[in-house]
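User: Please predict the structure of the protein below. I'd like the answer in structure-token form so I can feed it into my own downstream comparison script.

Assistant: Understood. Taking the following sequence of 191 residues as input:
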Amino acid sequence: MCARTCEQTHSVDLAELARLRALKRGGASFRWTRSNCATAVAIVVPRTGGVTLHYAKPESGVRLEAFVGFAYTRTPFGGQRQWFACPGCGKPCRILYVPGTVVCCRRCARLAYESQGESPTWRAARQAQRIRKRLGVGSASVSVPFPRKPRRMRWKTYRSLEERHRRLIAAWCGGVGEMIDRLHSRAGASG
């Protein structure tokens, strides 16, 4: 096993299968290649009441075939929403992970999101970059001036994003300043 976060673990997303119309067209295949993990292939085949997941990592010889049923929850206006039923706990989930030789939800696999391990300083920087990307900036660098309001965005929304961005950048700069101060104090103490 080479990952302990959701972003680094191979996964199958029910929403992505729906976007690809894979459950109606006879299935889908996925191929994952990463520098720090082995290549893996997954084939999702729709069945009555669920899907069959065929998963293989050719380099390590790991092969897995699992049937995953569907679970349904009611929606407010009388409809129902489809989910995967986690083979581990039976609870509804949208994303299934393959953390080794099993298929399960994030909780059963004991996976965390990468952002859960981030310091507040770097979380603020990432959120500021996300605001810049939302406003259509090709570069998310803070050295580029804050972008102008997109054509169809409301001024109230733009000003709210601008203020949030300003607070996030201030938090990031303060955090980086504290890191630099700690490094200087360590260098002074050891020197």
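That's the full token string. The chain has two domains: 6-114, 118-190.
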